[in-house]
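HOLO CASE FILE
Compound: adenosine monophosphate
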Amino acid sequence: MLGLMQDWPLLCHKIIDHAAIQHGEREIVSRSIEGPIHRTNYREVRARSLKLAQALERDGYKLGDRIATLAWNTWRHLECWYGIMGIGAVYHTLNPRLFPEQIAWIMNHAEDKLIFVDLTFLPIIEAIAASVPSLEKVIVLTDDAHMPESKLPNIVSYESWLAAVDGDFTWKTFDENTAAGMCYTSGTTGNPKGVLYSHRSNVIHALVSTQPDALGIAAKEAILPVVPLFHANAWGISFTAPMVGAKMVMPGARMDGEGIYELLDSEKVTFSAAVPTVWLMLLQYLEETGKKLPHLTRVVIGGAACPRTIIQKFQDNYGVTVFHAWGMTEMSPIGTVGSVKPQFQHLKGDALLDLQEKQGYTPFSVEMKVTDDENNEKPWDGKSFGILKVRGPAISSGYYGGDGKEQFDDDGFFNTGDVAHIDKDGYMQITDRAKDVIKSGGEWISTIDLENLAVGHPDVAEAAVIGIYHPKWDERPLLVIVRKAGSDPSKEEILGFMKGKIAKWWMPDDVSFVDEIPHTATGKIQKMDLRKQFADYKLPTA
Ligand code: AMP
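Model generated. Tokens follow.
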């Protein structure tokens, strides 16, 4: 027997409709690419998204077409998303921090037909357009007054292109499983792979992530997604904020400590989300200037393991609660969030930090397990680690074009490539990427644990650990350090600080000081490049 409930397809544009109806005046404030702060609201964004959908249809774009964006977080980028989805086309976010050749490769793989591009990134498209034959049109996210000279054919300013339609348009309707968005992930090996979100998965992910113990977003909130729309859907915030009617504050091109601080302060931001490197920059800025964060109540930190000192400083020095979260592009992206369960509410100080350093537990809709190489499940005992696998309605079932089939098992679980353990209370802790873990004499050493410990030293700005060949143990850890400006700690001081806080055989065999540690396009430590840099390195213990 079937239930007798209405068939109301979970389509993303219903989110912006709801925002316009219930929270029409709620603001979206952006640092524009042209410079000034720009203010709009959900009603206007919906109206302009409808125009965008109408203009796309007029130009011949339709259901299933891939339409790229190469842009910072601004109101225009948000309009692009909703307008593209509103005709059943697929927004395809490109990461501008990739090499131009990689961007061209990805655009060709996705067969993007049209691109919305910020002024900042137009030179990238000018350089690669000729090598992307599917690309028919370039729309620059600005007005005619700011339109630069360009030799590209078929290029137009966003505002003049939008102005040519009247907005008398209704969204298309289609099956909720229709593709809505696309984002390529660099993954571990081989070529980038296309993750394809559906309308249904985006809506479910938004419903799940607004829960109090997930991101806990409410209408009264002012939210600043530092995490870019091109990094795993801005962690879903472009759906969750309008779904609940929260004010959005978009940082545009400025993500330095001062730029972020200015918006947190002037727009009275209560909630923000970013990778640890962004928060390191902000905390450094606050320490240098002595400024405080009177409005901010919560931050979500993920994308890479969050060092304990970041959590501690936010909470102790600024009264901001940290939610450590883990996820992936393939998971829309939220996998776990480090909310404090009732049985741990009494924890304080180090005991609380021990809990918060873990990546947290799954919200409803995410199933997880940790297995050995033969897919046998490991117990949830907080120490048996193995490969982390996940399943759920907002998690990839495959990659675009059938790539990466080996990452999905017969039970529908996706192999994340992360190594983790889960404790009896359901809290998961990542110990490494499978490819980064150090195998010393048959035992595994977690590079994340060592890095998090090392950045706790007051003179350390950033730390990375890689395995270096050792004739007896196969691999031993090398600690690579960027010192804080104006400080000069020695190897002995750093190792002395770490001693006694980890197992003796986990202690790095050597410390190397560098000016800079390479980062990936989404702000994670680029271990592959670091390993290349230290390929000929000889450990003093070897
Ligand atoms: P991406 O899809 O680019 O966001 O990368 C996802 C990967 O980032 C995960 O598989 C993890 O390896 C890593 N990651 C994300 N969040 C965390 C976290 N809180 N702690 C450790 N690693 C993380």
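CASE NOTES: The longest strand covers residues 460-470. The pocket of adenosine monophosphate is lined by residues 185, 232, 302-306, 324-329, 333, 359, 416-418, 430, 433, 522 (CB under 6 Å).
CLOSED: yes
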